Amino acid sequence: MIILVSGTPGVGKTTVAMEIAKRYNLSYFSVSQFIIENKLYVSYDEERQTYNIDDSVIEKVNMEVERLRNVVVETIYPSLLDRADKVIVLRKNPLKLYEELKRRKWNDLKVAENVEAEILGVVSQEAKDWFQSVCEIDVSEKTIDEVISMVEKGECDKDVDWLSSPEVEDLLLKLDKIITSHDNVYHNEQ
Predict the structure, then answer these.
(1) Which residues bind ATP (predicted)?
(2) Is 13 assigned a ligand-binding role in the annotation?
(3) Which domains does the chain show, CATH number per domain?
(4) How confident is the model over 8-24, as pLDDT tens digits?
(5) Is 12 annotated as a binding residue?
């Protein structure tokens, strides 16, 4: 049994994945931790405070998942896995996600890019492109027990769409200005 828990940073992937693993006596596997511990990244982006990877990690990640067999895999990138029996993508209201990432004291660019990815459903779309069946769960107003209950019952939220909210549209415009401003500075330095 391979359960994949995915979503943008700050939605609660680690908490949910670890709780599922604990309740069902499964192994827990963090793809990010595995990549960092095994130095499988190609570079480190100082500005975004993140490791950059390439496709060379896919084989190693899948070998480890197959070795563990009964496992809950947590990752931002669902397409790193060749297969999963259950795919869960956690979603979070971008306004709440923005506050969560700011609380982590991430820089403006990193916050903007990750919240924009949530607004646009980047991780969700990647999961849907890669796997036949994907369960999206909006965790914005749910406790961990409510989220786990939904997973157990196979209950999913239908088509999470943040763009239909005027407040989220305003936030997206603000984030776009941050990203565009950064891109302009970066290109002028080149």
Answers:
(1) 10, 12-15, 104, 142
(2) yes
(3) 2-189 (3.40.50.300)
(4) 999 999 999 999 999 99
(5) yes
